[in-house]
Design goal:
Number of domains: 1
CATH topology: Leucine-rich repeat, LRR (right-handed beta-alpha superhelix)
Number of helices: 2
CATH superfamily: Ribonuclease Inhibitor
Largest sheet: 4 strands, parallel
Shape: globular
């Protein structure tokens, strides 16, 4: 994933799901202060979450599920108060099609339990985030086989 994406400072929507992206999430994405939709799910991203992502104050949709991310979620992520929960009845969380923006961290290798903060915050935003950590999703497993 190119670090230069962080130079697109007026970007509001970044969806790179299902692209077999590898490597780490660039810390430069933290420069995208207008971003409100970030979906990097179903790739092969590794490493830890860059603390700089907590500098995106308008982020509503944050889906990093189905990757190989590890470590602790930075405590600074508690600043992302506009993150939506699937089905949350807030106007800014509802899509035009009636579905909802959400936070997804499942199917990674994040440490469980997390220290507090951000533990309580994670359970509020993605209530079952911890139940699938360390579980290799069949989608990723078969994707890896097909691409090898």
């Amino acid at each position: 994933m190119p670090a230069e994406l962080g130079n697109l400072v007026n970007l509001r929507w970044l969806e790179l799901a299902n692209n077999c992206l590898t490597g780490e999430i660039p810390a430069t994405l933290g420069n995208l202060s207008y971003l409100w939709y970030l979906d990097l799910s179903k790739n092969r991203l590794t490493g830890t979450l860059p603390e700089e992502l907590s500098n995106i104050p308008k982020l509503r949709h944050f889906n990093l599920s189905h990757n190989y991310l590890k470590g602790y979620v930075p405590a600074s992520f508690t600043k992302l108060v506009t993150l939506c929960v699937d089905g949350q009845q807030l106007d800014y969380c509802k899509k035009v099609d009636g579905s909802y923006y959400f936070t997804g961290l499942g199917y990674n290798f994040f440490n469980v339990p997390q220290p507090n903060p951000p533990s309580d915050f994670l359970y509020e935003k993605d209530p079952d985030w911890d139940q699938t950590q360390g579980v290799l999703d069949e989608f990723i497993y078969f994707q890896a086989i097909l691409n090898s």
